[in-house]
Specification:
690 residues, alpha+beta, Rossmann fold, 4 domains, 7-stranded mixed sheet, 5-stranded antiparallel sheet, 24 helices, 21% strand, globular
């Protein structure tokens, strides 16, 4: 049976085709869970005709009842003339103590101080959180003279499923293999599982852990456009996404209303996610916020005013990285893009999981699911219910970690393991190998935090943690390492006198340098060599000449430039794009861990332009992972040249298209020096002496 068929059979009435929300949403600032709530009522079927009818109904509801701010006066008029009208809007409520009643405000409709019954507040306390709740509301209008309040809330229903059968959900886990269940969850969060490998699926699903575990401290940093904040903004009515630059201590924890203390966001939501959690000029973080945050992340409680308050909200921090991972590992640390005020050992040590967002590719059109997944609101309700189950004690049945790990290390690994078990194996049925896969993921996620703490705060080196564990099922001893450390050949120095992470190769070269220095102490110092100036002038290459590479032609002139502009109107065919990619690869190989801007100016016919844009976007996304800021533009021109910000102009008769035809199945295809050249001329000119 196909996966999609299994999904429909097991969760009939609780699934929706994931691309439908995008078809309905358009440019509306409505969370996906609001749209899927409506789609679930009209389109929870695989009957295409029924889906089309359902889509039209949902579009009709959105068109007639969703409030656009520009149309709020029209809607108010409609309410007045009809006497009552149903709207979809974000509603916030506060207590008006003077009048001893609750009053509501409507974000888009623009109404304020509308009386709202206490029964609605008691059933939906998040209305008081200050961040608003999406609701379907019937608003009435009271005509006549001497009416103090014209507007009347007649019915109010938050856009979320009222009840679920958790055991039914758990029982259906047996209908799926583990791979199928993982793909089902990936479809549910709106992504196409065939575009992700297993590790990427784990990283994606780890974003759900703050929703399924109480007080889970999660951080993910990575490039733009990888979907880091999507789960926290679109998935669940139990979570709230706030701009990292707009968070204050009263808004987050406790604010004073007269003499009364009112809980902030952590008191009302399962998840509070900080978006754009990165350094921003002109924004300072108040010290009391950081102190209160540290206490909350560690103890699930905070002191504000005269009382100590407890909460179960998970705290999430998502932001963009400024540099590539190799650059950060060798020159700073993996937290270097977050606000400076938070780069403190005491704060970062409280992070349970650091998700490597850089391993997820930028999302494109084909990255999104067109299959069936759970209605987002249904999944959110399931995750909310599973928060009450604590499986942290389950880890001790599988692994014993080295005693050098701190209690915070142990707690972080236990909580990640618990959350992943509830997510992937809610019925508790997993093989030993599947369990150890989760142990490895949990341990690596915490080690990523600890490795960076050694760089940020040297006091952590006094008691270094050795991340290894014994598999209790078979006695094997497993060493844990992060993928980025292995990929970049990084070793962690725990010597308190050494403050860097370094490569084995660099360590060897430093050692060699010391030996050479000692051996030459008694010798006279060598005369400093003069820096040779690069030659200007023209060089002609003959037809059929070999041994010509981009590296020999260009690298000496590009060794120090930070911005490179390639002007070539003929970058469109597959081999011309391959030439461009080889040019960029040359920069990656010769100038690793450096931020370089490369701008391509080219041209193409209008009807073929969309295809070229797609291919150049692929190159742009790939280059971003290597620290190359590649972009492109189009204009009609003829001359071909490369210019640099440090004064060089390289005139190219043929642009980058210097090689004669060669077979795709030849050594020449892999090695430029084996290719035969076309006849071409290249001119090097120094524009100014920098």
């Amino acid at each position: 049976m196909e996966l999609q068929e299994k999904i429909l059979n097991s969760f009939c009435g609780k699934v929706v085709r994931k691309d439908l929300a995008f078809q309905v949403k358009g440019g509306l600032p409505v969370p996906t869970y609001v749209l899927e709530y409506l789609l679930g009522q009209y389109c929870a079927t695989d009957d295409q005709e029924a889906i089309e009818l359902g889509l039209e109904k949902v579009k009709e509801v959105i068109q007639n009842n969703y409030i656009r701010r520009a149309d709020n006066e029209i809607v108010k008029s409609r309410i007045k003339e009809r006497g009552r009208f149903r709207v979809i809007d974000k509603v916030t409520a506060v207590l008006n103590e003077r009048d001893d009643q609750y009053v509501a405000s409507f974000a888009n409709l623009g109404l304020t101080n509308v009386p709202i019954g206490s029964n609605y507040i008691l059933a939906n306390p998040k209305l008081l959180s200050g961040n608003g709740v999406w609701c379907i509301v019937t608003i009435g209008y009271i005509p006549g003279e001497d009416v103090k309040q014209r507007w009347d809330i007649q019915t109010l229903k938050p856009v979320q499923i009222s009840n679920i059968d958790l055991q039914e959900f758990i029982d259906h886990r047996k209908d799926f293999t583990t791979d199928e269940w993982i793909d089902f969850l990936i479809h549910t969060v709106g992504l196409e599982p065939s575009k992700l490998n297993r590790r990427e699926k784990f990283i994606t699903l780890a974003r759900l852990l703050p929703h399924i575990e109480n007080n889970f401290n999660f951080m993910e940093l990575g490039p733009k456009g990888t979907g880091k904040s999507h789960v926290f903004q679109e998935l669940s009515p139990y979570g709230v996404l706030v701009s990292g630059g707009d968070v204050t201590s009263p808004r987050l924890f406790v604010r004073m209303s007269g003499k009364k203390e009112e809980l902030g966001l952590v008191g009302y939501w399962d998840v509070v996610a900080w978006d754009e959690f990165e350094q921003q000029k002109g924004r300072n973080v108040e010290a009391v916020l950081i102190d209160t945050m540290q206490n909350y992340l560690a103890n699930k409680s905070f002191n504000r005013g005269k009382a100590t308050h407890e909460a179960s909200a998970s705290m999430v921090f998502v932001g963009n990285t400024k540099h590539t991972v190799p650059y950060m590992l060798r020159n700073s640390h993996l937290f270097d893009s977050i606000p400076t005020s938070f780069i403190k050992g005491a704060f970062l040590d409280r992070i349970h999981l650091y998700n490597p967002g850089w391993e997820i590719s930028m999302l494109k059109k084909d990255s999104f699911s067109k299959g069936y997944g759970l209605i987002s609101d249904y999944l959110a309700a399931i995750l909310h219910a599973l928060r009450d189950r604590d499986l942290t004690g389950l880890l001790k049945q599988y692994a014993t970690f080295d005693g050098s790990l701190s209690e915070r290390d142990h707690n972080a690994i236990r909580k990640t393991f618990s959350g992943m078990v509830k997510l992937l194996y809610p019925d508790g049925n997993m093989t030993d190998d599947e369990a150890y896969e989760l142990v490895d993921f949990a341990a690596e996620s915490r080690k990523r935090v600890k490795d960076q703490l050694y760089k940020i705060d040297e006091t952590f080196k006094a008691e270094p943690a050795i991340f290894k564990y014994t598999r209790l099922k078979d006695g094997q001893e497993i060493d844990v390492e992060t993928l980025e450390q292995i990929s970049n050949n990084i070793t962690v120095s725990l010597n308190p006198y050494e403050t860097d992470l370094h490569t084995n190769a660099s360590a060897d070269s430093q050692s060699l340098g010391k030996e050479q220095s000692t051996a030459s102490e008694d010798k006279p110092a060598k005369k400093r060599e003069r820096i040779q100036r690069l030659p200007e002038g023209a060089t002609t290459y003959r037809l059929g000449q070999t041994g010509v590479t981009f590296e020999k032609l260009f690298m000496p002139y590009l060794a120090k430039s930070k911005e490179i502009i390639i002007e070539d109107p003929w970058v469109r065919t597959s081999w011309q794009l391959k030439n461009l990619l080889e040019f960029l690869t040359m920069l990656v190989d010769n100038r690793p861990d450096e931020d370089i801007k490369v701008r391509l100016v080219t041209w193409e016919e209008d009807e073929k332009l969309p295809t070229l844009i797609d291919r150049l976007d692929d190159i742009k996304d790939d280059m971003a992972t290597y620290g190359i800021d590649f972009d492109y533009s189009f204009r009609e021109f003829h001359d071909r040249q490369i210019t640099t910000d440090d004064g060089w102009s390289i005139s190219l008769g043929r642009g980058l298209d210097i090689y004669d035809k060669y077979s795709a199945y030849s050594i020449a295809s892999a090695k430029q020096e084996r290719r035969k050249c076309k006849e071409f001329r290249i001119i090097y000119m120094r524009k100014n002496d920098k």
